Amino acid sequence: MKDYYIKTKDLSVGYQGKVLIRDINLDIKKGEIVTLIGPNGAGKSTILKSVTRQLKLIGGEVYLDSDEIRKLSYKSMARKVAVMLTERMKPELMTCHDVVATGRYPYTGRLGVLSGEDENKVDEALMAVHAQELGIRNFLEISDGQRQRILLARAICQEPEVMILDEPTSYLDIRHKLELLEILRKMAKEKEITVIMSLHEIDLAQKISDKVVCVKGDRIAGFGNRKNIYGEKIRELYGIDNGYYDPCFGSVELPRVVGKPEVFVLSSCGTGIPVYRKLQKAGIPFAAGILYPGECDYQLARLLASEIISEEPYEPISCETYRKALEMMEQCKKVINAGVKTGKMNQKAGELLKIAEERGIVNLIGI
Predict the structure, then answer these.
(1) Among the listed residues 330, 331, 287, the one whose alpha carbon sits nearest the alpha carbon of residue 310
(2) How far apart are CA 355 and CA 105, in angstroms?
(3) What is the pLDDT of residue 365?
(4) Fewer CB within 10 A of the end CB, N or C, for the chain?
(5) Distance CA 248, CA 66 (A)
(6) Cα dihedral sign, 313-319-324-329
């Protein structure tokens, strides 16, 4: 068995013979979801258009199940690969049902007459994207988000082995973004359809992809599983110098407030997260503790807090760590109890809270 289903070998892509990105080498297995991410204008669409033969390859080759794509007939290509790109379709006097039905043309005769089975496939595709009620509507009269769902239904109707989608979540609200990605996930895992797409939402790409391709503009800056890609590579790929992308939460964070901590936040088990964000929004530098690496408070505090007082995982709070926290609390002169929960391992956090309460410097609510 081959270790790939789609393979690009030393691929060079661009326009009118001018190379924009060269040396693209990707191995994609059957049923994998592979997502291209990168800044606007980096070349994601150029790569997808080249793979689908809408742009002529400048160099290298693309293989589909051992066949060179450039040698496949258009009919063979249409039966194997469904394409959903960002260009706006403007079909005149076509209903949404008619648009979806074009996905069956690779299987019909020259006149494009649909059989009863073809009509059933159209209905099933509309049902898959929850758009049955749009079937009789004029395609040009529906919203952009609804058009995305209809175009996905057309691709599904084609019954391809590979689906290639360029920014398929554009114009969709969050509910329909998740719905579309769940459809793609099921198709990949249950029907072994290989999905290659570009996404702007790097958080969604992190959650759904088996592999991620980082497109930098003149090169592929990274290719691999999510664990290898997300982290500093994201920061470098997008040139982020005004905040963070946090792979632990899949969230974008504004930069921490710089300065000497004014507030010490006592928290545990996620109770500090809303307080950290509130302090950041108010422009107040803060310290956080006593936290254990690995818990969710620590993961966010490492991005937003000026200082963190932490203890080794699974260890009771030591006298040294307690001393550091007490010094920080005295330095800040204001403590926020974000709802810290204490037990055998972090009893000393309770002692800190008691001292703060006795000194009248603790705030139980927030800022």
Answers:
(1) 287
(2) 76
(3) 54
(4) N
(5) 38
(6) positive
Residues 338, 265 contacting (CB under 8 angstroms) = yes
193: preceding bond cis by omega (within 30 degrees) = no
Can you name the residues that pair with 217 across neighbouring β-strands? none
- Given a contact cutoff of 8 angstroms between Cβ atoms, the answer to whether 26 and 36 are in contact is no
Give the whole-angstrom CA distance, residue 310 versus residue 299.
Answer: 12
For 32-53, the pLDDT digits (tens) are 999 999 999 999 999 999 999 9
Instruction: Decide: residue 71, CB within 10 A, 0-12 exposed, 13-18 middle, 19+ buried.
Output: exposed
Q: Which two tokens stand for residue 132?
A: 């049955």
Torsion of CA 297, 301, 302, 307, to 10 degrees: -130
Going from the C-alpha of 122 to that of each of 7, 163, 173, 195, the distances in angstroms are 31, 17, 24, 20
Q: 339 — alpha (psi -120 to 50), left (phi > 0) or beta?
A: left
Q: With H, G, I as helix, E, B as strand and everything else as coil, classify residue 27.
A: strand
Q: How far apart are CA 361 and CA 260, in angstroms?
A: 18
Task: Quote the CA–CA distance of 367 and 357 in Å, as a whole number.
Answer: 16
Residue 86 has pLDDT above 70, yes or no: no
Please choose, from the candidates 262, 283, 268, 261, the residue with its C-alpha nearest in 3D space to the C-alpha of residue 338. Answer: 268
Averaged pLDDT score across all residues of the chain: 90
What percent of the chain is helix, strand and coil (3-state, nearest 5)?
Answer: 40, 25, 35
Token couple for 97: 């049902």
The residue length of the chain stands at 367
How many other β-carbons are positioned within 10 Å of the β-carbon of residue 93?
A: 8
* Virtual torsion, Cα 114, 119, 121, 123, nearest 10 deg: 150
The tokens describing 93, both together, are 């006097």
pLDDT at residue 2 tops 80: no
φ, ψ at 352 (rounded to 5°):
-60, -45
CB-CB contact of 168 with 86 (8 Å): no
Residue at 63: amino acid letter: Y
What's the average model confidence in pLDDT over 14-33?
94
Token code pair at residue 325: 């926290």
- Between helices 347-359 and 319-332, what is the axis angle to 10°? 30
